[in-house]
Sequence to fold (286 residues):
Amino acid sequence: MSTPPATVDAFDGAPTVVHVSDVHGYLADARSALRAVGETDAFDPVVTADDDGTLHWADNDHVLVVNGDLIDRGPANEECLALVRRLQREAPPGRVRYHIGNHELAVLLPALVGWRREYSVSLSPEERRAFLERVADGAVTAAFDGYDYTYSHAGRNDPFDVGDVNDALRDAASELLARDGGDERVQRRLASHHAAILGIGDSHGGRGPDAGLCWMDFAHLEASAPPQVVGHTKHARATRNGNVVCGNVIRLNHGSPGGEGVLVETRDDLTAVRRTPSGDVATTTV
Fold:
């Protein structure tokens, strides 16, 4: 596929940017969060459901950013991947963006990163190659520029160019496909060469301030950093620290009624859309 536009300005009009992150294989929570957008008075739906309950692209003026860690932890990894692939097929090019997170990184660099018994490390060689091909083709990227915020899984304190990091990710996947992607030496070299994205970091268990876009903990993302929306670090509600906002709310709320939700960026505002314990939807300017 062609490289998806790396900025909202590449689209005609003024699309609304919808952000969901860290689904972690919890399909029901993801469905609830995505459907919540259309249950507000402020926003058109980003997805619709057919008679069987399958979600489809609603064909409204949105960009959906699935900001990493779609897989692992929960039971419905294949179904979550199928949902994103279906939305990417149905939406206009570039309107559904799937970003790499640290759990997708385990598919790219299994010799360096992994969690026992998780989906990301259980793929067959053929399944891993198919995922690498999607990264190399631009169906999985690293970052996106919204109106006021840059989107990536974990963020960074220094400015970065989204086109550059997306190109670097494609290059890394292409090299893994061309060489023996299971060779630890190749993986270590790529992690070092593309440390801004793939770097695990040498401190704080891989979540320290020296980690790349997939790994740095929100605690190390400075309030004065360039404006960003990230996931990665669990919160009960969307959380702002100065210029940066974390929207990873699904996993910490999993198992309790409500709490799952998304962030919605327009030209004017950043809004948290959140499912309440009663099943209603609440919106809050972040």
Q: What stands out?
A: Residues 162-178 form the longest helix (17 residues). Residues 65 and 97 are 5 Å apart (CA to CA). DSSP finds eight helices and 14 strands in the chain.
